[in-house]
Amino acid sequence: MHDVHGTPARQIRAAHTATTITVYQAYAPSLGLPAARDGRFPPAWKRERMTWVKPSFLWMMYRCGWAAKAGQETVLAVEITRDGFDRALAGACLSHYSRGVHADRTAWRRALRESSARVQWDPERDVRLAPLPYRSLQLGLSGPSSRAYADEWTVSIRDVTPLAREIRGLLGAGDEAAARALLPAETPYPSGPLEHLGA
């Protein structure tokens, strides 16, 4: 299914290279700043908790309010290996039951229980953070996937809070074209078919 612009209803779009993909997260400065400084997550980063990563910069901006929401004042661009990301996707389960993807609710619950990665498809956002008619991926990682993300897959961590603030400032000044020009370039990610994730 595609929208009028030809964008698939569910598609991963991201900044990626031949070996890496960039995802975004937002944290309080006490955690985000040391992570960006050292290029890895500090011991204080709880590896046993579920963590959600977003390949869409604008969806992250929607979630953290351009780095203004409490506890989300530091936005990180986390470059991780495509190998790790692809393995998480391959073993992921939708976070909600979907008829046609799962045999029944019991099968979905079992898959959810057995997987350390889950996926939600949320409406993508435009530069004004209004919802678009197609969706963007959120990947939740827990247990072994969360630990691997923090300690094995991470290639680099950058603080992109200044970029977020600059874009927000340009929007506030009414210069949408300049704001748009600063957005990270995100292109369709070559994940292959994701039938088990409804895409």
Defining key terms:
alpha+beta; 9 strands; 199 residues
Strand content: 25-35%
Q: Largest sheet, order of strands side by side?
A: 3-7-6-5
Report the radius of gyration as a whole number of Å: 17 Å
Quickly give the structural class: alpha+beta
The strand count comes to 9
Task: Tell the overall outline.
Answer: globular
Averaged pLDDT: 91
Sequence of secondary-structure elements: EEHEHEHEHEEHEHHE
How large is the count of helical segments? 7
Cα-to-Cα separation, first versus last residue: 9 Å
Classify the helix fraction into a percent range: 25-40%
For the report, how would you describe the main beta sheet?
Answer: 4 strands, mixed
Q: Unreliable runs, pLDDT <50, ≥5 residues? A: none
Question: Topology, please?
Answer:
Blueprint: E1 13-14, E2 20-27, H1 29-38, E3 51-53, H2 57-64, E4 74-81, H3 82-90, E5 93-94, H4 105-114, E6 117-125, E7 131-141, H5 143-153, E8 154-159, H6 161-172, H7 176-181, E9 187-188
Parallel strand pairs: 5-6
Antiparallel strand pairs: 1-9, 2-4, 3-7, 4-8, 6-7
Helix pairs in contact: 3-5
Descriptive account of the structure:
The chain has helices spanning 29-38, 57-64, 82-90, 105-114, 143-153, 161-172, 176-181; strands at residues 13-14, 20-27, 51-53, 74-81, 93-94, 117-125, 131-141, 154-159, 187-188. It has 199 residues and is α+β, with helices and mostly antiparallel strands. It has a 4-stranded mixed sheet with strand order 3-7-6-5. The chain has a 3-stranded antiparallel sheet with strand order 2-4-8, sandwiched between helices. The protein has a two-stranded antiparallel ribbon with strand order 1-9. Helix 3 (82-90) packs antiparallel against helix 5 (143-153). The longest helix has 12 residues, at 161-172. The N and C termini lie close together (9 Å).
